[in-house]
Design goal:
- By secondary structure, this protein is α/β, with parallel strands linked by helices.
- It folds into two domains: 175 residues, 3-Layer(aba) Sandwich (Rossmann fold); 155 residues, N-(1-d-carboxylethyl)-l-norvaline Dehydrogenase, domain 2, CATH 1.10.1040.10.
- 51% of the residues lie in helices and 13% in strands.
- It is built from 15 helices and ten strands.
- The strands form two sheets. An eight-stranded mixed β-sheet has the order 3-2-1-4-5-8-9-10, with helices on both faces. Strands 6-7 form a two-stranded antiparallel sheet.
- Helix 2 links the parallel strand 2 and strand 3.
- The longest helix is centred in the middle third of the chain and has 23 residues.
- The radius of gyration is 20 Å and the shape is globular.
């Protein structure tokens, strides 16, 4: 078996190292030839994951056709803003029946499409899945204990990804709820920005706990309106990922929120980070969709007004504290998802 990881950012590099460390030849594709030359010279992705040597069986390349055409499993880890363009480049490259797995946490605003849906359209003969969870790349690369979720309608894909990624410090759990797992990974980025703001403003642990749990309620409410299983959000792809990104300074979205709370504009914060914070694009798409569906999402709406409406930060905070008080746990499992037990 051979594997291709399409996208040599920090997460893609960490995934490639895990797979190659399990004795599998793993192509790591990037577009930038200068980055390729540097990686080959130093056997390290000094741009995105400095200080971590590449495993021996990682094969850096800029030849997308050769990497994907030779691989049975393709992980796509590029940012959501460039996901469709890369997916279009993959057309006709993968062997029929190959496994194509999105590890990108984001939403395409036009048509409100998730990354797995883009992959399915671009690679109709492939079997598609997603990987999502509390997976901070730096911790993965450092060998910290980590868990993730692979979701797919194809049992063989789930089992294969579990086998490829399992390690003494990395556990992989399986799910059939592709939409729920993928929505969890995308939505939590919104609330990581909110918690970055709140933590920097030193609102206190009671307030942070309230924000995280109300964020989970919003995520579940929105996902259920789109047909996802609400119980998915009680697992690693939901509350697990939400907790990690809402509390960790390693999270780009948390860092963005911190910079906004310190007085930076959105453009200044994005430029200072030098990396894409997925929550910025996601909150645009989610707020438009929630308005269409009539889903109550005061935290997401407040962040949207702050980022794009120029509304005063403290006014938004005060508004959130005086917003409607609803029930704590709002939903039960829809009939289609009820356990036969």
């Amino acid at each position: 078996m051979r594997v291709a990881v399409v996208g040599a950012g920090n997460f893609g590099t960490a995934v490639a190292n895990i797979v190659a460390g399990n004795g599998v030849d793993t192509y790591l594709w990037m577009r930038d030839r200068e980055q390729l030359a540097d990686i080959r010279a130093h056997r390290q992705n000094r741009r995105y994951l400095p200080g971590h040597q590449l495993a021996e069986r990682v094969i850096p390349t800029v030849d997308l056709a050769a990497a994907v055409g030779a691989s049975d499993v393709v992980f796509v880890t590029v940012p959501s803003a460039s996901f469709r363009a890369v997916a279009d480049e993959l057309r006709g490259l993968a062997e029929p029946g190959a496994f194509a797995i999105s590890a990108t946490k984001g939403i395409e605003a036009e048509g409100f499409r998730l990354m797995s849906q883009i992959l399915e359209a671009a690679l109709p003969s492939a079997r598609v899945g997603v990987v999502s969870g509390p997976n901070l790349a730096e911790e993965m690369a450092n060998g910290r204990y980590t868990g993730t979720v692979v979701a797919s309608r194809h049992e063989e894909l789930r089992a294969t990804v579990q086998e490829l990624l399992i390690s003494p410090t990395f556990r992989v759990y399986a799910s059939e709820d592709v939409y729920g797992v993928e929505l969890g990974g995308a939505l939590k980025n919104i609330y990581a920005i909110v918690c970055g703001i709140a933590t920097t403003l030193d609102v206190g642990q009671n307030a942070i706990a309230m924000l995280v749990t109300r964020s989970l309620a919003e995520m579940g409410r929105f996902a259920v309106s789109l047909g996802a299983n609400p119980f998915t959000f009680l697992g690693l792809a939901g509350v697990g990922d939400l907790f990690a990104t809402c509390t960790s300074p390693l999270s780009r979205n948390f860092q963005l929120g911190a910079k906004l709370a310190q007085g930076a504009t959105l453009d200044e914060a994005m430029e200072d980070l030098g990396k894409l914070a997925e929550g910025v694009n996601t909150v645009r798409a989610v707020c438009a969709k929630s308005a269409e569906l009539g889903v109550y999402m005061p935290l997401a709406d407040g962040l949207h007004r702050l980022l794009f409406g120029g509304e005063d930060l403290m006014r938004i905070v005060a508004g959130l504290m005086t917003s409607e008080q609803r029930v704590d746990v709002e939903f039960t499992a829809p009939a289609a998802w009820r356990s036969p037990c």
